[in-house]
Design goal:
The complex is a heterodimer of chains A (343) and B (424). Chain A has 343 residues and is mainly beta. Chain A is built from 1 helix and 27 strands. Chain B has one domain: Growth Hormone, Chain: A (Up-down Bundle), CATH 1.20.1250.20. The longest helix of chain B has 31 residues, at 27-57. The chains are: A mainly beta (343), B mainly alpha (424). At the A-B interface, α1, β9 and β11 of A face α1, α2, α5, α6 and α7 of B.
Chain lengths: 343, 424
């Protein structure tokens, strides 16, 4: 190759053209998506909404409103008696939300430099009670039935391409200020022995109704996924079943709804299933689609879960499914995600 | 991040003659620096938001991201050797490097369309293999274009520019997400734009053959590739064995910054949100020290600076575990880590260039980088077990205690190698 002066100038010129063209193209794309995002935020909501400054007195369902337009991403609630009715927007931006009559747990992503993640507990009048920084992007949150404990799971990731450092971090906090810390610090027990899992991950807490120190969660190490029963006083996690991911205990405490891997492997579809705690029998429900959301109970025989509307958008719907054999999933609340039923 | 897993090489015997020749930065190195800067802006902007995108936007599970994140670290390390010998064999390091940068660029196009787990896994794999391919031939080109007496300084200039890109990338990504909620598409488009610019600079501004290569071209015939060329004994003749052994030994005690940051965070109890800034701090120190330490290596010797870098690493471990804390200790740790990278990353490349025969330079660079990368991966895995079993403070103290004799052994190995390398 010759690098004569003329050729060099030609190449430099060509490079300049490439640089200007590429940056201009990226700029145009950026500006148009900025305007699109702006106009979408300002557009009227696709659903009928009202605003609320407190939780209602009647039973309700609180969820993340995913309807495009104003109020997108806010925690919202509807009457339990009229789930497809007008939704009340709380004004609180939450990626994941859960609630009881006394307390709303809200996990949020704040787009700053660098991106910040936080958990905020709101009172029934939607006033912030306490908040703390989360170590990564929100994944799951649950509040104990008496409103005294709050669990959060986040994804913790390294910030380097060369780092394979990745895990979930699940913490439980008391509304009285007690910090039970990262559940990875709890002793993981199986058949009376302690499992030393260096790559252990814990996620998806569900609190046992009527037993304020007990909960279930998922523990994993390598390809193994276990249902564990946790005890806050003893700081232990005891393996009770295998292949049970992201548990959710029914209001009567008799069943656990969970996500069952279709392949038994870490990657692949997850379908909703129900474990009978007394007998240990597992029923896989008739849902063909992949479920990512932590399942919630509408009542003792019906489950709820979020499902993306389509591949391309962030919009989703909440579906309901009876645990009776042969039931089909039904659309329950449109443009919504992360439901919590408050009775 | 810059190519922190790159090999460390020392100047094994002769005293550098930096004082005798004035430093003149080759335009080739400047352009290669720009290529790396653009490519790092491209890759680090995506890397910074990938976890958010995968888990938050695509809604893939925890485990799925863990698998994507851990993909092909090993494969990427191994293609380095292959790419190195290919560039030796063909005598066209630029074409091999171009293939690597090009593959990563194509992967960025894929991000615009990826929807599911397997698509994303494939794209990340392509990107990492591209990174593995380009590193050794690029360093061979730098080595070829540099004045031999200013080799470490030349690598220092390149690593500095590389790190400016690594620091700018995440900032650009976070700013875009701040302006455009869920604007992942825009981040991918901007990342692609920088990747295209990087490839264009390499294609248009970096000559295929540097003046240094012409001597070889004048030879009657290019030596034909033989498998025997890859043999260890061949490398041994060149005095590389001891260098690679020393680098591998030290790599086994390089536990990864993440663990040091965790210790600092535990002790200082600063909010987790500042965690990314620890990486930025280390990067900033790395880019600030890269050129001065390169100069020092050319003047005082590359082996001493390379070893001093590992002493800085040792000091940062100590600083992270001693009970006396405070902001000063945290900043000191970051400075020491930056010093470590600046004293070892480019300096090792300079050392390999110094001891390797020119016709095997690519393979030699690739080998050293692979050994360092694999030893650090092994170190991180082993250290994770120790961290869990013995507790964080004890684990780091153990590694610090082992690092001291390891540095001494490396010094001995490299002194011995100097005598061997002197023989024709």
């Amino acid at each position: 190759m010759s690098f004569g002066a003329t050729a060099a100038r030609g190449r430099l010129l060509l490079l300049l053209v490439v640089v200007v063209f590429t940056l201009a193209a990226a700029g145009v794309y950026g500006v148009s998506s900025f305007q699109q995002a702006r106009s979408s935020q300002e557009a009227a909501s696709m659903v009928e909404t009202a605003t609320a400054d407190a939780l209602p007195a009647e039973p309700f369902i609180i969820f993340q409103n995913t309807a495009p337009g104003q109020g997108n991403g806010q925690a919202a609630f509807v009457d339990l008696a009229d789930p497809s009715g007008i939704r009340s927007l709380t004004g609180l931006m939450c990626d994941r939300v859960y609630g009881t009559r006394q307390l709303v747990s809200c996990l949020a992503t704040r787009n700053e430099v660098p991106t910040r993640f936080e958990a905020v507990a709101y009172s029934s009048s939607l006033q912030p009670q306490q908040s703390w920084v989360l170590a990564g992007s929100p994944s799951r949150t649950r509040v104990s039935p008496d409103g005294s404990l709050l669990a959060s799971t986040v994804f913790v990731t390294g910030h380097s391409y060369t780092s394979a450092w990745f895990s979930t971090e699940t913490i439980i906090r008391g509304t009285d200020g007690t910090d039970y810390g990262n559940l990875e610090q709890f002793a993981l027990l199986s058949g009376g022995n302690r499992i030393a899992a260096t790559d252990g991950n814990i996620w998806g807490v569900t609190f046992v109704p009527g037993h304020p120190t007990e909960f279930y969660a998922t523990a994993s190490s390598g390809e193994s996924v276990w249902l564990v029963k946790g005890n806050l006083t003893e700081q232990t996690l005891t393996v009770v079943a295998s292949g049970v991911e992201c548990p959710s205990i029914s209001p009567d405490g008799k069943r656990i709804a969970f996500k069952k891997s279709a392949t038994g492997k870490a990657v692949g579809m997850r379908h909703p299933a129900v474990l009978d705690i007394a007998t240990g029998s597992v029923t896989v429900l008739t849902e063909q689609r992949n479920v990512d959301d932590q399942i919630e109970w509408l009542d003792n025989s019906t489950v709820l879960y979020g499902m993306p509307r389509d591949e391309a958008s962030l919009d989703s719907d909440i579906w309901k499914l009876s645990i009776e054999a042969g039931s089909a999933p039904e659309l329950f609340i449109q443009h919504a995600w992360s439901p919590a039923v408050v009775r | 991040m810059s190519d922190r897993k790159g090999g460390h090489k020392d100047q094994l015997d002769s005293t550098p003659a930096a004082a005798t020749t004035a430093f003149r930065l080759s335009p080739v190195i400047l352009w290669l620096g720009i290529v790396s800067m653009m490519t790092d802006i491209s890759s680090e902007s995506v890397a910074a938001i990938l976890p958010l995108y995968v888990t938050g936007f695509l809604g893939l599970s925890t485990i799925a991201f863990g698998i994507i994140d851990g993909i092909n670290q090993g494969a990427s390390a191994i293609v380095r050797i292959g790419a190195g010998w290919l560039s030796d064999r063909t005598g066209h390091p630029k074409r091999v490097a171009l293939a690597g940068y090009g593959l990563s660029m194509l992967a960025r196009i894929g991000f615009l369309f990826a929807g599911g787990f397997w698509a994303l896994a494939g794209i990340v794999t392509g990107d990492r293999i591209g990174k593995g391919i380009r590193t050794a031939p690029r360093d061979a080109m730098i080595s070829d274009a540099a004045q031999p007496e200013h080799l470490a300084r030349s690598f220092g200039v390149h690593r500095m520019m590389d790190n400016i890109g690594a620091a700018a990338g995440p900032l650009i990504a976070f700013l875009l997400l701040l302006l455009i909620p869920n604007g992942f598409g825009t981040v991918f488009v901007v990342s692609l734009a920088f990747a295209v610019i990087g490839v264009a600079v390499l294609l248009l501004m970096v000559p295929g053959r540097t003046p240094g290569r012409r001597k070889q071209e004048a030879a009657p015939a290019r030596p034909r590739f033989r498998w025997a060329d890859l043999k260890w004994s061949r490398l041994k003749e060149q005095g590389l064995t001891r260098l690679v052994l020393a680098a591998g030994l030290l790599g086994l005690l390089t536990i990864g910054d993440g663990f040091v940051y965790l210790l600092l965070q535990d002790r200082e109890a600063f909010a987790v949100q500042w965690f990314p800034l620890l990486y930025v701090g280390t990067n900033a120190a790395f880019l600030a020290f890269a050129v001065p330490l390169g100069r020092l290596a050319d003047r005082w010797g590359r082996v001493p600076v390379f070893l001093a870098g590992h002493l800085a690493l040792l000091a940062s471990y100590v600083l992270a575990v001693v009970p006396a804390g405070g902001t000063a200790a945290t900043l000191g740790c970051l400075l020491l880590l930056g010093f470590f990278y600046a004293a070892t990353d480019g300096v090792l490349a300079a050392l390999v260039s110094q001891v390797a025969a020119r016709e095997h330079l690519g393979a030699a660079l690739g080998t050293a980088q692979t050994v360092v990368a694999l030893s650090r991966m092994a170190s991180a895995a082993g250290f994770g077990v120790l961290w869990y079993a013995a507790g964080s403070g004890v684990a780091v103290a153990c590694v610090a205690l082992l690092l001291a004799p390891a540095v001494a052994s490396a010094a001995f190995l490299l002194r011995g190698a100097a005598a061997g390398a002197a023989m024709p």
